[in-house]
Amino acid sequence: MLIFPVTPAKQKELQERMKNLGVSEEDLEEGFIRASGQGGQKVNKSSSCVYLCHKPTGLGVKCQQGRSQILNRFYARRRLLDEIERLQGGIIEAEQKQIQRIRRQKQKRKRRAREKRWGEKEDFRISGSLQTGQIGPSLWDGDIPEG
Q: What are the tens digits of pLDDT across the range 63-111?
């Protein structure tokens, strides 16, 4: 396990969480990216942003919380463990179901508004007798009925 510049209690807590979740350092793929955002020239020159990927689950976390790369490595591990806990607890599936339910509600509201705007279940692109399918031979001959 790496040594991070945090208190020994936080270090031990991280090690215990990794052990409880069955995550080892060999399962993690770590990459460093140049940070973005405020900070000027220093941010542009240093690769303090950490990308951490858990190979077995495919979860990835990007962290640029602090200015120090070593601290960001610690924060990224904590954030990754939070995501793994959410995945194992079934929270992610529940959130996806919630998002799908909200999406269906929005589609339903949109359809109702469209029906209200353009008449009762009427296709606004087709009007009159064309919608009901009542096209007579006189219409094809050029006779346009009045009224």
A: 988 888 899 999 999 999 999 988 888 777 888 899 999 999 999 999 8
- Whether the CB-CB separation of 93 and 101 falls below 8 Å is answered with no
Rounded Cα gap, residues 26 and 141, in angstroms: 79
Task: Give residues with Cβ within 8 angstroms of 135, minimum separation 6.
Answer: 129
Going by C-alpha positions, the residue among 83, 42, 46, 44 that lies closest to residue 61 is: 83
Q: Which helix (H) or strand (E) holds 52?
A: strand 49-54
CA geometry: angle 84, 65, 72, nearest 5 deg: 70
62-88 burial: b if 16+ Cβ within 10 Å, else e: ebbebeeeebbbbbbbbbbbebbeebe
CA distance 23 to 74: 14
pTM above 0.70, yes or no: no
